[in-house]
Amino acid sequence: MRVLLLVVLSLIASCDTSERKLLHGHLFFAAGNYVGQFDLRDSSSAAVANLGDVTIDHVSTFMGGDLLLTVRVFDNARETSRILRFNPRTYSSSPLFPGLMAEYLPGTKAVVYDDGLRLLATHRAKAYRDETVIDIHGYNSRPALVVLSNTEILFDSETDGDVVIHHYDVERDESRPLPALSKICVLNGSVWLAGSAQLLCRAQSSSSQTARYVLVSLDGTIRKAPQLPDDKPFRALSYLPDQQIVILTEQSESWGGGQPKYAVWAYDESADESYRIAKDQYLGRSVAYRP
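Request: output the structure for the sequence above.
Response:
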């Protein structure tokens, strides 16, 4: 009887695995001064380029298949951050402007970036010279950014200790606060699920050690909690719209207090299920998806 039960469980497990989507595409990520590429088909990874004496802090998509990289460099014993345009095919890079993080909105060909004091929008049509101030946040605050569409973003701003999430339309140059969403979500580590128009965010009541994620509309309506293991510290990295998949990373402590270990998970929005796709794989805190 016990042998039969084990066989049945094995068959169920194999059926569950076979019904999972076959993923495709690549994720570009940063590890120190390296740009890496993670293959979603077989969960393999490879180094793409070494950028030398820099630390890469943020990776995002840009026009023409290029990437936007935020790098920290030491120049004359002083640390500065700048935004680079990086071509992963030729391994060439070119500086755009000083900044701490940037996201590209293809609908307006605008780059929204943080210069350390302000959140700005600058446009390719104006050679990235004319800038629109979206928000002023001060030196000790770092706004989180989540891209909603080709022309819209979410960002957070702190005032008198209260963090408020805002919606900003680059095309119209209009910003509005979202107080109901702000009471529920931590924007850092959130991703927008464009197909179902909902935000996968870490709930305000959860801790960073065991982040509890919820699916929420912009008006603050909680739709449901996704099927994710409750005891794992996840961070949502990217939504793959053509596959309806969210990529998350899991951090766990090593035995004996060594370096933390990382794993990569996928959350299937249509099936409402999650599963690990890679063990011992570091993807950092941001990735850029290429189908």
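Residues 1-18 have pLDDT under 50 and may be disordered.
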